[in-house]
Amino acid sequence: MNSRISSICSWLALLLASAIAPAFLGTYGQGVLLQLFGWVALTASWVAFSGMTGYISLGHAVFYGMGGYIMALLWMQLPILLVLPLAALAAAAFALVVGLPALRVRGPYFVILTFGLAEFFKFVVISIESALGVNGRLLLGAPDVIWLSYGMLVLAVLAVGLVFVLKHSRLGMALWAVREDETAAMTLGVPTTWVKLLAFVLSAMVPAMVGALTVLRSTYFEPMQMFNPMTSFTIVTMAIIGGSDRPAGPVLGAAFIMLLSELLWSRAPEFYMVLLGVLLLGFVLFAPDGIVGKLDMRRRRAAKGQS
């Protein structure tokens, strides 16, 4: 009981600090927070599907880019607060259509399939833009970065909240059963296809809204940038380092990688990528439960020592 109260207080303190911080930071600091909140939202949405089911998806970049594209197309035509849910619904519809056939395959085949779908959609958008004679879209009059950072904070809270709800729901139990042994889950009557599809659709909605806000921050839409596969790889890295099946995992993983990026990317980008690869291998081999798992293990040892 005490640990639960402590956990709730920690989350509330983090939320309060995140809400207050943008008001006391300059434009650069607000931009960093916007990126951090965005990565937390993206990683948590990935955890809501892949972390829960064990189906490793490299397709989040397509939902992210789709949201940015919809915002670029509808900019100055519809209010932002209307475009965001439209982007989420479009991503959900796309996930529903591609999820039905895609979720029939497992393991590395699913990984390759999701990566291929993301690349396919990227080149479809590039072809459409080329046919229209458009070489990038400029978004003038975007909101100030402080308002975008608050919007991204809301998305981060929604995504982490989704992971928390799934972890403590019947749907989450069904997804856990799929991850542990899908065949056994089917034998026990779990509608595995539909629970996977529902989680896949839910996990697609937040990235679309993140992409929509991100393109407002950059004030420019360019398909190669918005549909960059590195987005998906970075999400997976953050999830693994933070802890791919815990609500706190996306927060810690995103914060860790963002800190590493701020310290090394501008000074030694080549070393940064090498170090990132080494860290990923190290966590996969020696800390598969991520930072959260290590912290939980240390907490349990401390509790045993006190008893």
Automatic annotation (TrEMBL):
One of its GO terms (molecular function) is branched-chain amino acid transmembrane transporter activity. CDD domains: TM_PBP1_LivM_like (cd06581). One of its GO terms (cellular component) is plasma membrane. InterPro entries: ABC_transp_permease, LivM-like. Keywords: Cell membrane, Membrane, Transmembrane, Transmembrane helix. It is a multi-pass membrane protein. It is found in: Cell membrane. The chain crosses the membrane at residues 32-49, 56-76, 82-103, 110-133, 145-166, 197-218, 271-292. Its main location: membrane. The keyword Membrane applies. PANTHER family: HIGH-AFFINITY BRANCHED-CHAIN AMINO ACID TRANSPORT PROTEIN BRAE, HIGH-AFFINITY BRANCHED-CHAIN AMINO ACID TRANSPORT SYSTEM PERMEASE. This is Branched-chain amino acid transport system permease protein.
